[in-house]
Amino acid sequence: MGEEVIASRNDRFDFLEHMSDIYVRAYGKDILELFENSGLALFDSMTNIDHLRPAVEKRLEVDGFDMENLLYKWLESLLLLYYSEKLMCGSIGVEELSIERINGDLSYKLKARVLCEEFNPLRHEARVEVKSPTYNLMRILKQEDKWVAYFVLDI
């Protein structure tokens, strides 16, 4: 599968060509920004995040057994905000990403503050409905001066 860019949001994320789902490449100058931009890509696939007026603050905490699992659970927790409360995040601030050893196993934890707005079909463009993140093609890479994540959203 090629990685032809079909839409780009500057240095934050790209939507890549995929046969049936949404294939995302997100960027960050550090791992925190990478997770922020990955979350914004999720919501930008569903609506134009530039039109959101985020006023509802939520705090999220997720944990995982490795970095890809943490990204999956992060995207899943953001999607849950939409499906449970119809909230779309227009501003995401990852405050902490930590790794600790518990009983010999590594545990990854992320804490974030998100600002959201309730989706209003009269005001917000409805793009696609994302069912869930997937592990398909998921990877997180540290490149010279940035972090890059690839992941697929099932629609």
TrEMBL record:
**Similarity annotation:** Belongs to the archease family.
What would you give as a GO molecular function for this chain, any one? metal ion binding
Mind listing the UniProt keywords for this protein, alphabetically? Answer: Calcium, Metal-binding, tRNA processing
**Which InterPro entries does the record cross-reference, listed alphabetically?**
Archease, Archease_dom, Archease_dom_sf
Q: Which organism is it from?
A: Desulfurococcus amylolyticus (strain DSM 18924 / JCM 16383 / VKM B-2413 / 1221n) (Desulfurococcus kamchatkensis)
Q: Which GO terms describe its biological process?
A: tRNA processing
Q: Which residues form the Archease domain?
A: 13-155
Pfam families to which the protein is assigned, alphabetical = Archease (PF01951)
Instruction: Write the protein's name.
Output: DUF101 domain containing protein
What Gene3D superfamilies has UniProt attached to this entry?
Archease domain
Highest taxon of the source? Archaea
Q: What is the lineage of its organism?
A: Archaea, Thermoproteota, Thermoprotei, Desulfurococcales, Desulfurococcaceae
